[in-house]
Amino acid sequence: MLTFSDILQAHRRIRAFVHATPLLPSAFWPGLHFKMECWQKTGSFKIRGALNAVLALSPQDKRPLVAASAGNHGLGVAFAAQKLRRRVIIFVPKSVSPAKLNALQAMGVQVQLGGRDYDEAEALALQFAAQKGYPFVHAFAAPEVIAGQGTVGLEIAEVLPEVQAVVVPIGGGGLISGVALAIKTLLPGVRVIGVQSEASPAMHAALQAGRVVETPVQPSLADGLAGRFVHETTLALTQRYVDEVVLVSEASIAQAMHLLLARHKWVVEGSAAVGLAAWLEGSIPSAGTCAMILTGGNVSTAVIDGLLQKYAREGEMTTQEASS
Questions:
Q1: Residues 6+ positions from 259 with CB-CB distance below 8 Å
Q2: 181-198 tens-digit pLDDT
Q3: pLDDT at residue 100 above 50?
Q4: What whole-number distance in Å separates Cα of residue 272 and Cα of residue 252?
Q5: Count of Cβ atoms closer than 10 Å to residue 62 Cβ
Q6: How confident is the prediction for the chain on average, in pLDDT?
Q7: Cβ pair 205, 213 in contact under 8 A
Q8: What stretches of 217-297 show up as alpha helix (H) in DSSP?
Q9: Which phi-psi region, left, alpha or beta, contains residue 30 (left: φ > 0; alpha: ψ -120 to 50)?
């Protein structure tokens, strides 16, 4: 089982390569502080786990790396591979966000499109890696990846020791597993709350069932959280260290993305906005000091344009109703 010392080791290993992103208080929501992983290198927290996993490999091992990703993990592995001058093959689903696909291609990595969703892309990547004898860097379940993501929790505890709740988006569970372990070790009284989209509730369903179960995935603005399965490792860590996991609607995710842009001028992807969406729905206690991780900012301009047009139309309708 992963230990706190693994997270400390990960911090020492990756700190020269990543940003210690700011934890910014909100002027609009008293008590809320946002951990700005959307400003991280490659645009998301995923670089932390990917770097730790790749740097932990033997430096004499020069085989190409293989990963499966909805986008952000692939960018992290690509960054790490560049630093170590290693070739990398990234498998992404056909449903991958255009913004993330374009970013991967811009980094010059070999991208393989395949599968209707992340889980199918992962199966293809695992098969390919086994056939070739190449190392596979798992997006969320490898201990080194979880430890790297846990460094986000270290930074929150260091900067905001008075925090009372930490809110973490959940996809496969790698981020919340590492963050919760770090927070509960350093600040055991702090509540750790996970958030998933109703469109992809794999961890929520696994917690209810007490085991990993397959859950259907619907289209979602939080595409980076989409997956039909979590993993036994992340489920066990979530069961042990996380206080609660809540679900949020697509409407609230859209509202949260728009509010972060309109009020703070921050561009975030839907996966990053689920914490604020839960706050807006009343699922997160509004009293006290709360840290929310804005996990990534790799969102297409088309999605942002759509949100701006949607809320502009709704604003016009409200103005017309008020004047009639």
A1: 28, 276, 280
A2: 999 999 999 999 999 999
A3: yes
A4: 12
A5: 11
A6: 94
A7: yes
A8: 232-241, 250-264, 270-281
A9: beta
The token duo for 322 is 């008020």
Mean pLDDT value of segment 51-60: 94
Nearest 5°: phi and psi at 168?
-130, 125
Q: Alpha-carbon distance 321 to 317, whole Å?
A: 6
Q: What is the CATH number of domain 46-132?
A: 3.40.50.1100
How many H-runs (helices) and E-runs (strands) does the chain carry? 12, 9
State both tokens at 242: 């996380």
- As a whole number of angstroms, the distance between CA 101 and CA 92 comes to 8
- Give the mean pLDDT of 147-174: 98
Pairing status of strand 290-293 against strand 165-169? parallel
**Higher-confidence position of 62 and 167:** 167
Give the Cα separation of 181 and 2 in Å (integer): 9
5-14, 232-241, 298-307: least confident range: 298-307
b/e map 247-265, b = 16+ CB within 10 Å: bbebebbbbbbbbbbeebe
Q: Residue 303 — pLDDT band, cuts 50, 70, 90?
A: very high
Asked if the domains 4-44+142-306 and 46-132 are classified in one and the same CATH topology, the answer is yes
Q: Is the confidence at residue 127, as pLDDT, over 60?
A: yes
Q: d(Cα 250, Cα 198) in Å, to the nearest integer?
A: 7
Distances (CA, A) of 268 to 149, 233, 275, 305: 18, 28, 12, 13
Which among 303, 306, 309 has a CA at the least distance from the CA of 100?
A: 303
Per the DSSP assignment, residues forming a β-bridge with 248 are 197
Confidence (pTM) = 0.94
CATH for 4-44+142-306 is 3.40.50.1100
How far is residue 190's CA from residue 16's CA, in Å, rounded to a whole number? 28
Q: For the chain, give every domain's residue range.
A: 4-44+142-306, 46-132
pLDDT recorded at residue 318: 46
